[in-house]
Design brief:
Chain lengths: ~475, ~425, ~475, ~425
């Protein structure tokens, strides 16, 4: 029996709103408020039951490509739950916050080593936010040189946030196609580059899991036209200890601490998206900068060239702390090993699937690879979506599907370094069995999830985003 | 595994990384879990947190009591180790919790649609301004000058790509909106008008509802969600978009992050909204189910033409807020709001007894915080207070320079009489 | 699909035991050790998956009679997880432990108020342990008076730990039957009492949920023969703020902090079973006693009449702390209200079931009541056990069954004060539906649990209590 | 609800409670969750815990590092809010976890059967002595005099109902069993013989295996489960029953409680064993399943004739131990054991350099702790150390009076070099 899943606000307080006069200026008083009325026991049963209808990396394999769902170690959470983390306000006198500031400074230094960048700001709240901060820096840089450059080049395999961030910063987008080998087509790049080019945004390895071997050449081309080279660091976990954005010639990079550095995703966030730059761009980084002098850590606000602030505070300290704990735990060699195992796992799983799914492009892959259900679709009418839904029945989270768009019926698979061979074999066995299964079963999946296949188009059509709205539709008015 | 792949040693998998870009990672060796814990605790011990050194800081980030039930729920690993719920069948729990969050926010704000979070209050405002620019052709966004430098800077940065200019209007002697100044600035070119209540000075501004009559441009209202337990819903004041910071709803301050950007709007504008939203729908058996919806607004579908670049948001903080609001319920939230008003009243009254201090600067209703005018530079006072074991309030000089002698003091239910009394007697001594 | 439930030790380390010479004296070295080899991710997935196959009060209704499965508030757990609780050693100088000692002293005082006893020891580790300490006190008391009394009287409705504790202390047991009304048969008591009687052990309300109205009379009878009157305080949650063991005339009492005072049961423990006595027995309480003087709290070991120690330390401090937090939170009125609601809930549920199950004995009940499936068994062959198993399918924990033995096919139900009316109705609806259901379905239940009905007799026959044993049976030798 | 029951007001439900026994509950009014938290934290702040004041106490209760994964698992509310798993179909998770715990304990001890916990090490020993009395007719239980007064007292109290006398034997100059003394005391009347390794003095006693040859009565061996990573399994030494305290396996000290009473025995004696046990079986579909078993030994079935009165045990602490052991695995546990031996060696060496101090008193292998002889009363030294921010070791006077000048010092992996060095220099100063 499926447990009670009523909305908690259906246990509502029906009494009249109490008299609260004297607390608000005239005309500003509230007259009603509908919130649930539950005791702690009901409250917890409700939310615990909801949690049980959710799947996380602690529940099982989560090979979601481009999302790096790796294990979130518990020591990091425990460290983050102390009052010396939680009960700190970002406006505190620096003297009161030497601990937080030291953690941040050390984290900047660690990220600098990892990325080969000269200066880091931990301020951005997530990957896309780091991209945006980077685009603002690109803008400020060219402006400082009196140059007007209004285009940003983005490969078609780029993550959606890349073009979105560039556009949000006011740039025109120039999309370039991938070549046969899944890498940037250098001729297309050459054609796209111009004096209007502000930057090229690149992920390496790209979202196909392919390393752009000609990255140095590419960097030279971009730099040769006076543009900057930006690195989307969400995929850094494939290369740590092997190469770095700095070594590859990039000028700016953002990190996804919630991917590479094993902090929890929290069902969609919070994350943390620091941005790193080569020294010639340091002056443009967000304020305040953390400075260190004889007395300890201080905050430097007097940075006239800075882009200013991208969020209201200092960044997501609680996430930064977790990531720093993880970096300390792994150490340099440990991070390198993580990359090695992530890549090994990805290539192993790819090999296991090769005879059952179409897997375009040549070896080796890095941390992820993209398979395709296009043959399955042709032969049996089973799409990537159906494969995904059927995997749910086996307690394995489906891969990312339909991304990148350049692969038809894409299944983008990133096992991460945490899965054991046994677990990889289970993923493979399940995916192979689905490929061989009676299509009717697959098309009707999931069969054993808390709900049947969810009607996403109805959700779009109705656009009911709240209980209020739900009620007003139900009552026909409100 | 290497055998199966057909390689002899692991580095063969990196043969595609050219020699010229190879490098080493000169970080120290790894440490045991125990040593990491000890090392980080050693560093954190250098902090003086609000439990040790009472703090009077606020402006969007408050030291409230976090019910243990909230911690418990967001520590459920099915929740916090999950990703964005792309596969609704495997994520009904998170989806429903977020739908409930949206519902609570809609109820508080009096609007029908809310997204399931932005990074923080400042970026939520930035996104609101951008949304206004999408809703009409104006090229000026009007906002109060009474904002922290942080918020102003974020807002400017979020408007950079839109061609919209930011124009700031002033405040009146009672700390509310200067209606004349707004009036003067309103033209057809205004694409959006923003006001806060409570505002930077903690003032519950009864003039905000009057703004609705002054322009057809979208009205954006910034709120404190706890104050909304007692305050008229902005939707009823004619607001089109409501933003704010929801950290106060069950999350620690965490040195400022993560926050929780609240974002709600009218149903009619839902397709112009930024951020992720969870919608109600049905499953194949016709039963109630939830899923992410209106995704064509988002970057992973619309890419360069998305309403925002936001991807990862702060979903777990939103869940904390949902649990917090359900834990308190209506009556509990009303009590909490009252207690925060009473605490602030008590503190401002005590301080007003000190000679040479004006407390509060603005004769008005306040929530959580209020400005006081001091005979000495606030920065200096904070230094002295620090030596006596207090973290004073926010000196306003860096934010609104004309109030350079003022300090913003915030207090919550975490300050009992003893702490307030002690603080006031210290302040008296110091002045 | 049921997730992987292999034993964790099946992921074993097969390498040879390493060389560890130099760490042990000759002849004391180990040669092999088989423990699992898993990474943190596998470890957590394993145990989290196991937890998901378990049901607690946070999962749903748990009306287990005589066990008081009430909500365990989370603030208490959070308080107990601090280093100022955890990193304290019981041998510390008193100066270092003033906080722990003050909590304990305050708890003693609170329990004293609640029970009407003059002195409390928090040392016993659980209810049965408290009973045992009490029996040792009874023994020491009579010995101190030079009396030889070797019998303890126990009603047939008593919890099994009562006779077991008395027997363990070397007493002969005299069992007396319950009367028609479910109460102690005073004539039988009279007949059982003698100069050999050391004590009568009683629960009031008894395990049938019936209040022994004639308790004063009964006390006079027992005291009249020079025997002591012992109160099993596991059921205290029915009467707080209404009456107390002290007011009823009892001399000794034990508490179950993990029942009345809402601390977690932990799947079987730890609990805490303080013992309280009237002043004339105080000298016999376990050592050390917590004393308070001008300098603070001290430990008094110089108590020559004391029974000594019942456990190696000071009691289960982590549980005591939780219970104290709960008592502070409720306050006197709150505890009284808990009793009132517990009794109201019990009577409501009883009333709802009355027409569908046999519910012997008259009204009102206290916190619990005993229903019977004897008619169901007669009419349809459905036993209490079957009803219980079928309830599992509905996500409700079954009541205690087959206890007390004096009720045939007993279903002993204690809803506790935490269940809402809605939840009580759900329990009732489910139990009624089972009574009316096709017996075949009920007999084959559970249908939707992680396992089918478990073969308990095979477990007894095989007596396999470890993986070692399992392997050696499997291999035929080891 | 009252209507339905047919009563007018709630007190009607208490009409069976006679007036003469009625009373009030004069406790103060209830407090909010926040105020309770604050109040208790205020009191607890009076403690000086081992993280603030390094402590050198041990004897069965140690300050080890608790991996965060252990906390996480036992904080799963499905585990900790459940009761004794009477309904196996609803409790497979707890049952399997406890079966795994039993399995780990069996593996460590070299025996085939273990129960799923006793209250603590001392009561486990008491129960073991009682079990010996059940296994044969003897009326003397032999145990070392080198035990804490707590343990001796508990043991006596557990033997009270059995008619068995406790007899204590001495130790040799190397701190091990005095074999001659044991020899002298062994008669047919001995129903059980108990020895510890490591013993009170932290000595790993190589003479314990020799006891097997000296009597046919059951041999009970007391152990430290972490030491067992390196030490020969007692089952291989001929032990019939193994007991010990398992708090060191992933639980905080908690001012001494809850502990974890380890209890393992030979398969042949399983039906005489005290306490709850989890057995392997099958479900109706023939699949592996677990349930409580051999319940006819227990009080809820056998009542007055049960093997023990124990009902509630410390199951959750046992789960913590299972997770702890699985977390470390063989190699991790070996490392941990080595580290603890090395820490103790280092400390005893450093102290032995102080004049007038004999460190250790016994020239033997130690685990975690060791006795040192001091020129001043240990109690007095502890007072002085306390003023300098240390919690010294256990003065032995109250436990083994003839060693009144000795102190037992325990150290674990939580003491780094700095702490040990600092402690030793303080000690040097003080002496
Ligand atoms: C390649 C890549 N770039 C950027 C992002 C955006 O990061 P975030 O979700 O933290 O905004 C992601 C994550 O989704 C990503 O995979
Ligand atoms: C009436 C009664 N007495 C005694 C006990 C024994 O308590 P414990 O399980 O804590 O040993 C219980 C609990 O099972 C009980 O219900």
């Amino acid at each position: 029996m499926r447990p009670d899943r009523r909305l908690i606000m259906e246990r509502i307080d029906a009494d009249a709103y109490p008299d609260v006069s004297g607390y608000m200026p005239k005309g500003m008083e509230r007259g009603s408020l509908h919130l649930p009325k539950v005791n702690e026991s009901e409250l917890l049963r409700h939310y615990i039951a909801l949690s049980r209808d959710n799947f996380g990396t602690d529940s099982g394999p989560y090979p979601l490509g481009s999302c790096t769902m790796k294990h979130n170690p518990k020591y990091a959470d425990r460290l983050a739950s102390q009052p010396s983390v939680g009960r700190m306000h970002h406006h505190m006198d620096e003297d009161h916050a030497q601990g937080s500031l030291e953690i941040m400074k050390r984290m900047e230094m660690a990220l600098s080593e990892i990325s080969g960048m000269d200066a880091i700001s931990l301020q951005p709240s997530a990957g896309a936010h780091g991209e945006y901060a980077a685009m603002l820096i690109v803008k400020a840089y060219h402006a400082s040189r009196g140059e007007e450059r209004d285009e940003v080049i983005v490969p078609d395999s780029a993550h959606g946030t890349n073009p979105a961030s560039a556009a949000m910063a006011g740039y025109k987008l120039v999309e370039i196609p991938s070549g046969e080998d899944g890498c940037v087509d250098l001729d297309a790049l050459e054609a796209a580059l111009s004096d209007r080019t502000a930057a090229l945004m690149l992920t390496n390895p790209n979202t196909l899991g392919i390393f752009e071997r000609r990255v140095k050449e590419l960097a030279a081309m971009v730099h040769g036209r006076g543009a900057l080279l930006y690195y989307d660091g969400a995929n850094l976990n494939a290369i740590m200890g092997k190469t770095s954005p700095g070594a590859m010639g990039f000028d700016l990079v953002h990190f996804n601490l919630h991917k590479t550095f094993a902090t929890p995703h929290g069902g969609g966030g919070p994350g943390s998206g620091p941005v790193g730059v080569k020294s010639f761009l340091e002056d443009f980084l967000p304020i305040p900068r953390i400075a260190e002098d004889a007395d300890g850590m201080t905050l430097d606000w007097a940075r006239p060239k800075s882009i200013g602030k991208v969020n209201g505070a200092m960044g997501n300290f609680a996430i930064i702390l977790r990531a720093y704990a993880y970096i300390l735990r792994q150490g340099g060699d440990g991070l390198k090993e993580c990359s090695e195992r992530a890549v090994l796992n990805s290539n192993y799983l790819k090999k296991r699937l090769e005879n059952h799914y179409d897997v375009p492009f040549a070896d080796p892959r890095k941390h992820e690879f993209v398979a395709s259900a296009k043959n399955l679709k042709k032969e049996k009418g089973v799409r990537a979506l159906d494969v995904a839904k059927r995997m749910i029945d086996h307690g394995i989270h489906p891969p990312t599907i339909y991304f990148p768009a350049l692969v038809e019926e894409a299944l983008m698979i990133e096992p991460t370094e945490d899965e054991t061979m046994e677990s990889l074999d289970r993923i493979a066995d399940v995916m192979i069995s689905i490929a061989e299964e009676d299509p009717a079963t697959v098309l009707a999946a999931p069969h054993s999830a808390p709900v049947g296949r969810v009607d996403e188009s109805k959700a779009v059509k109705d656009a009911v985003l709240s209980y209020r709205r739900m009620l007003s539709l139900r009552e026909g008015s409100r | 595994m290497m055998d199966f792949i057909g390689i002899g040693f692991e580095d063969e998998l990196f043969k595609d990384v050219p020699e010229e870009v190879r490098c080493h990672l000169p970080l120290p060796k790894g440490m045991s879990e125990k040593d990491v814990t000890r090392e980080i605790e050693r560093i954190l011990a250098k902090n003086s947190h609000a439990g040790e050194v009472p703090s009077f800081l606020g402006v969007g980030c408050y030291d409230h009591y976090v019910p243990a039930a909230v911690d418990h729920v967001i520590s459920r690993s099915e929740f916090y180790t999950s990703y964005t719920p792309y596969q609704p069948e495997m994520s009904q729990g998170m989806l429903q919790a977020l739908f409930e969050y949206q519902s609570h926010i809609c109820e508080l704000t009096g609007l029908d649609a809310a997204n399931c979070s932005m990074y923080d209050g400042a970026t939520a405002l930035g996104e609101a301004a951008r949304m206004c620019a999408r809703l009409n052709d104006g090229n000026v966004f009007l906002a109060p000058r009474a904002m922290t430098r942080e918020k102003v800077s974020v807002l400017r940065n979020y408007l950079i790509g839109t061609g919209v200019e930011l124009e700031l209007y002033g405040w009146d002697e009672d700390g509310g909106v200067d209606l004349d100044d707004v009036e003067r600035r309103i033209t057809d070119g205004v694409c959006g008008l923003y006001a806060e209540t409570p505002n930077l000075f903690g003032v519950i501004d009864a003039r905000v509802p009057l703004l609705r009559g002054m322009t057809d441009a979208p009205l954006v209202v910034g709120v404190n969600p706890i104050a909304l337990a007692l305050m008229r819903a902005p939707g009823d004041m004619g607001a089109d978009i409501v933003v704010g910071d929801g950290q106060c709803l069950g999350s620690p301050m965490n040195y400022g992050g993560p926050g929780l950007g609240l974002f709600a709007c009218r149903q009619e504008h839902v397709r112009k909204m930024p951020g992720r939203v969870i919608g109600l729908t049905e499953d194949s058996r016709g039963e109630q189910a939830f899923c992410m919806t209106l995704q064509t607004r988002e970057q992973h579908i619309r890419r360069g033409r998305a309403t925002s670049n936001i991807c990862t948001n702060v979903a777990l903080v939103a869940v904390a807020a949902a649990v917090f609001l359900s834990y308190h319920g209506r009556d509990g939230l009303i009590e909490l709001a009252k207690e925060n008003i009473n605490r602030a009243r008590r503190l401002m009254d005590l301080i007003s007894d000190i000679d040479n201090v004006q407390s509060p600067v603005f004769d008005n209703h306040h929530f959580n915080e209020f400005a006081v005018e001091l005979p000495v530079k606030p920065e200096k006072i904070n230094c002295i207070l620090a030596k006596r074991g207090f973290q004073g309030g926010l000196p306003l000089s860096a934010h609104v320079p004309e109030m350079g002698d003022c300090m913003l003091l915030a207090t919550t239910e975490m300050h009992d009489d003893e702490v307030q009394d002690h603080f006031v007697s210290m302040l008296r001594e110091v002045l």
